[in-house]
Amino acid sequence: MVQKLDPEIARKRMISYGMEPTVLYPGRVDAPWPGICLECKQPGSPTLSNAKRQGVCAPCGQARAAEALRLPLSEVVRALMHPMPRALLVTNGKFTVECIKWAQGEKRLILVTRVRLERWAIDGLPRHEALCLSD
């Protein structure tokens, strides 16, 4: 038998995870619980169990993950200035038109989008095709 979680304890936990609930505890850890993200002030409805494992706000979590992976522009430029066969530039979003035009002129630069990475991870697209490495 699953033990019931006290609503006040659940509320304190959700706040500690970064979400201020806007309604009373729904009574289950796997039920959506509307609230406001304490970081970006946007509304959301994570479950208490997901909030504990993954965080409360998808946009904030994605921004933190992207920031952790981001290289300073100076490192990207320095890498492109050294002779190398190819450089991969990966984004979790889309590339600007200017970036795409620049990459077309810079034969050593390969742009890889989230869609292409998903095709590799989910659909089983061969890695060399996903990363445009086939010549």
Overview of the structural elements:
With 135 residues, the protein is α+β, with helices and mostly antiparallel strands. It is built from seven helices and five strands; from the N terminus they run αβββαααβαβαα. It has helices at 7-17, 48-54, 58-69, 73-81, 97-105, 114-121, 127-130, and strands at 19-21, 35-37, 43-44, 87-90, 109-112. The protein has a three-stranded antiparallel sheet. A two-stranded parallel ribbon has the order 4-5. The radius of gyration is 21 Å and the shape is elongated.
Task: Please render the helix and strand layout as text.
Blueprint: H1 7-17, E1 19-21, E2 35-37, E3 43-44, H2 48-54, H3 58-69, H4 73-81, E4 87-90, H5 97-105, E5 109-112, H6 114-121, H7 127-130
Parallel strand pairs: 4-5
Antiparallel strand pairs: 1-2, 2-3
A few lines on this structure:
Helices cover 44% and strands 12% of the residues. The protein has 135 residues and is of the alpha+beta class.
Give the beta-strand count.
5
Order of helices and strands: HEEEHHHEHEHH
**pLDDT averaged over residues:** 80
| Strand percentage | 5-15%
Q: What form results from the Cα inertia axes?
A: elongated
Ranges with pLDDT <50 over ≥5 residues? none
Taking the sheet with the most strands, its summary is: 3 strands, antiparallel
CA radius of gyration: 21 Å
Overall structural class, as computed from helix and strand content, comes to alpha+beta
Q: Please give the order of strands in the largest beta sheet.
A: 1-2-3
How much helical structure, as a percent, in the residues? 40-55%
Enumerate how many helices there are, as a single number.
Answer: 7
Distance between the termini: 59 Å
